[in-house]
């Protein structure tokens, strides 16, 4: 599987598929940041590396996983002699915590998988599915969420918290912040404005800004731009569309404004981004993974 990093934010009102990726690291490559999303599961496919969270460092190898949880500061990097290849899946949504409330994922930072692990099989096949599927097609959309629920079931079967397993399962009401993110994702390709969002939810702009910053660490404008720029990057790498066509597709009226914003965001012009080799693209993914949250917090407000 080639290196890829997709920002998906596919939401069905219950759970959200946030992102997925696959990357071969180079020596001395590290990541250090505060996690913005509910849960990002990283699995080690090859090589070795380490993961530090809450002042504890774990040495990891093939068939290990490390869990990135919202609002924790994490550091992870590859072994210089045996650089690892990792894949990851980001999950969220109004009910994710409830689906995992009876599992050991709540108390553990890492997991290890046996050779016959159903979770390992579901994770790797799910990430592979996300690498090529198009959720705008109904059958792909159904396949994605079918895989997601099968993965959640496998986690409950393979990693149950026996002390909690017999407690009743409770579903909360969806919170407003999740609904706002879902609305932004559904409409970010259109001429979406902050006023439109606040009016849709009948809230003030200040309250909208407060919710987005508290839950996602970003302003609503930054969230829109992030989705547009990452969608544009996927189209540049995965299609032969002209830059003008991509600009129109992601909500820009002219190629000049789009190219200016894309270059500011990715530090490469659209043409340069499209011409990147797979090796250079893999390095760029690592830089984006580490700096995305910093950039989105300060660039637009």
From TrEMBL:
InterPro entries given in the database record: AraC-bd, Homeodomain-like_sf, HTH-like, HTH_AraC
SUPFAM superfamilies on file: Homeodomain-like (SSF46689), Regulatory protein AraC (SSF51215)
Keywords in alphabetical order: DNA-binding, Transcription, Transcription regulation
Name of one Pfam family that matches: AraC_binding
Residues in HTH araC/xylS-type domain copies: 178-276
Protein name, entry field: Helix-turn-helix domain-containing protein
Species of the source: Fundicoccus ignavus
Top-level taxon of origin: Bacteria
This protein's record includes keyword Transmembrane: no
GO molecular function, one term: sequence-specific DNA binding
């Amino acid at each position: 599987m080639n290196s890829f990093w997709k920002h998906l934010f596919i939401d069905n009102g219950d759970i959200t598929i946030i992102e997925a990726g696959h990357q071969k690291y180079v020596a001395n490559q590290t990541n250090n940041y505060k996690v913005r999303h509910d849960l990002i599961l990283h699995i080690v496919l090859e090589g070795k590396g380490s993961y530090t969270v809450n002042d504890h460092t774990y040495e990891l190898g093939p068939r290990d996983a490390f869990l990135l949880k919202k609002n924790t500061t994490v550091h992870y990097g590859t072994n210089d002699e045996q650089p690892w290849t990792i894949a990851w899946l980001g999950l969220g949504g109004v009910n994710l915590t409830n689906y995992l409330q009876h599992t050991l994922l709540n108390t553990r930072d890492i997991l290890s998988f046996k050779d016959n692990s159903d979770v390992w099989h579901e994770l790797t096949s799910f990430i592979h599915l996300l690498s090529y599927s198009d959720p705008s097609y109904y059958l792909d959309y159904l396949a994605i969420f079918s895989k997601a629920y099968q993965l959640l079931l496998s986690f409950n079967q393979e990693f149950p918290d026996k002390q909690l397993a017999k407690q009743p399962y409770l579903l909360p009401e969806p919170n407003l912040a999740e609904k706002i993110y879902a609305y932004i994702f559904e409409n970010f390709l259109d001429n979406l404005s902050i006023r439109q969002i606040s009016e849709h939810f009948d809230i003030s702009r200040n309250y909208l800004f407060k919710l987005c910053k508290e839950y996602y660490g970003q302003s609503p404008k930054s969230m829109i731009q992030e989705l547009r720029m990452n969608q544009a990057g996927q189209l540049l790498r995965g299609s032969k569309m002209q830059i003008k066509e991509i600009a129109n597709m992601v909500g820009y009226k002219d190629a000049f404004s789009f190219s200016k914003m894309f270059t500011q965001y990715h530090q490469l012009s659209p043409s340069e981004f499209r011409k990147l080799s797979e090796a250079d693209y893999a390095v760029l993914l690592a830089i984006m993974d580490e700096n995305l949250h910093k950039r989105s917090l300060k660039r637009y407000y």
